[in-house]
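Annex B. Sample input.
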Amino acid sequence: MATLVLGSTYLYLVSPHRSSAPPESADGLLDRADTLAWGNLWVPAAPLYAKAQRLFVAENRPDKALYAEVSQVPPDESGSVPAKILQLTLDLAQPAAQNAETRLRILTIRGMLETNYDAAQAQATWEDVKTLALKQGHLELATRAEGEQGIAAFLLGDTETAKKLVVRAWGLSKVERDPAATVRYASVFGAGLVQLHRYKEALTPLDQAIKIAGSDSALAYPSIAVYAEIDALTGLKQYDSALVLANASLARLQGTVYEQHKSQLYISRGSINRERGDWNAAISDYKEAVSNSTTTKNYRDITDAGGLLAQAYEHTGNLPAALGAIDAAIVANTHIADELYLAPRNLAIKAEITEKMGHAEEADALYRKSVALVDEMIQHAATTNIERYLLAEMSDVYSGYFASLSAEKHYDQALQVLEKVRGRIETEAIEHHASQPVHAPTPDERELTGLNVALINTDDPAKRAALTNAIYNTELKISPSALTQQTIEHPVPLKELQRSLHTNTLLIEYVLAEPNSYAFAITRDTVTTYRLPSKSIIETDAGHYRKELHDQKEDRNLAQQLFSELLKPIKQYTDKTDLVIIPDGSLHLLPFSALADGSAYILKTHTIDVAPSSTVYALLAKRSEGRELIDMPYIGVAAWTQPADTRNPILRAINGPQRSQLIPLPDSKKEVEAIAEDLPHPSTILLGADATESRFKQISRDSTEVVHLALHGYADLDYPDRSALVFAPEQSDSNEDGLLQVREIRGLHLKAKLITLSACNTGVGPVEEAGVSNLVNAFIEAGADSVVSTLWELEDHTTEHLMTQFYARLANHERKVDALRTAQLELLDRGLPPYFWASFQIVGDPNGRI
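Annex B, continued. Sample output.
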């Protein structure tokens, strides 16, 4: 992914004044040039600044001459950036720079250059700009300087500060009716989301920036937004559209001096070609990016493009060229020593190359340094969201080191490295969540509640679009909860993990990678790693099979193919009956119970449990054993209990919070009542209008054996924190909106042995290397020992039957995982295809009894 090119594309001036000076006078030329620069039209402004400079010199007005001279720097991207920064610093010492407006202009232009050269320097310069602008009464410039500090913060890894400052500047630009600034900050915010792999979400601000710029002739081409959109389209695998946009942008720059922009586009196009499998074209583009960036001493792009070039050379087998490219990238990074974002990746790339060249000890040292840098970044993350993004972005560093250690049979170290990234958020929550205070709703959270209620209650497309936009803007103002400052335990040691496994249990932790994936197979007595097909092969087959199941088809050939890829190589599989799966990538969405060994689904021979990580599995097993006396055995909730309508089958799925989609689920009432008959009393059942979010939050604070939620649910893959269970409508004066969203679930304090989400898509979320962000993991973070969830929408009647069978078995004191398997087998033995039973899975501790 290309790094951001930000500072050279927009200069932050106070709004240009219009004097009565003749257009061809020095002051008149300066006014005209400032007006063009205000709209980012630097190329036509440059000759006007040059002409004005000559006239100011002739008039013996050195302060204005210097102002005009430095204003010719931004449009020229040729030459050395450090040399330009040094010259501007020297200019500040000139007597002419004592003029406040001239000094402000020099600092502003220096800040622009530093943003693309050294973010730490830029942050300090923009603070100087902000201070001086406030003294001068230039409030707009002060606001913009604060926004630029946010950009620098992002480049330095402080994502939370970046969001706060950039969003503030973005909002003020709209109030101040400053479209150029609106384009700038919408572009920057979208580009930041792209860096965090939130591609679909990024398109909203990026499209806004491009639309505003296109509708105002006084504004220049929105290059940041366009380049970020290229990367977003690539991330969404829309390669043809991304390539068309990249080629058009490069053609537009031919014959210009915008070398930094060319470098950015060559990096982006190289990544498109790499994703399409055209490695020679990718190498050509990355080489052009390195060459351009070297000419201008743009060390950030040398660092980025050099690492990508090294990977491309490595892929084609040219290890000497790969080593040369990565060494140059690492050296370039020393010139911007405060920017560590790319350093771990490049160190890991060099480690992989040196290992292939036979230098195992050097490779190990590089991997250890790389992992240490990532750990440092993660430990300084301000919120769980930032930590989650960093874990996803840096997971290849850990998986590469894991493969290296496994090859040397250093299994305990391999597990430790892998577990530093797997399930880390859940691990922290399990250890320290109970000590985090519950807070009253903030004004922004109350505003969000009102907007959600309004969205639920309208079907009008225009109103829904406006409300969705308002919801997005309000969510930006809500800060995620801060991370606990307590230190988490180290990842589970291998021996301790093995002691937590039963005699018949086989734990398999998957690592999807290129060119080979791995299965880390652990039993109570053995540890083995197995090499599997590539990530692309496995994920393609898994995605295809999931679609077949979702369409209610049986594809035994594909079921056997996936079994051959994922389980057949593992020798311990045939000796064990209980499988614990630690998925990776899209395997989070694959129902392992529907894989087939020959003619039989593995559900026939094995139980299946899923866990976010080995450490989480061990911690949940320990917590489950130590649960105290239960206050309330059972809580059952069914909100949509009115008589059935004519739709058949009735599904527990909705596409979003919309009242018209909340159809009756009449079998849900029978479901929760039948379960209550099987389980010990006392129990609490919330039905119909009583099944509100506020009531559930109130009663779920007590420790509970079982919580069963038979509700509508939906998974929002673009904005995962909006994924929710839908309760009954609240009273008008309530602080709740009826949507129990992921962001709220994480804040609950639960003490439950089992939570069953008898709703649709509750196990689905956006898949990243570090895991999947969904309702299930949120409930585990909130205090559940185990969660029964679903991978696709459910048919109401069959679900009621399966759940009744499941709880009848639990009432007979069967293990949770055995009870679920028996209920699923009953449907399988009736001849129903996997669509009706394979969606259900248990996540967390499988062994407890109710």
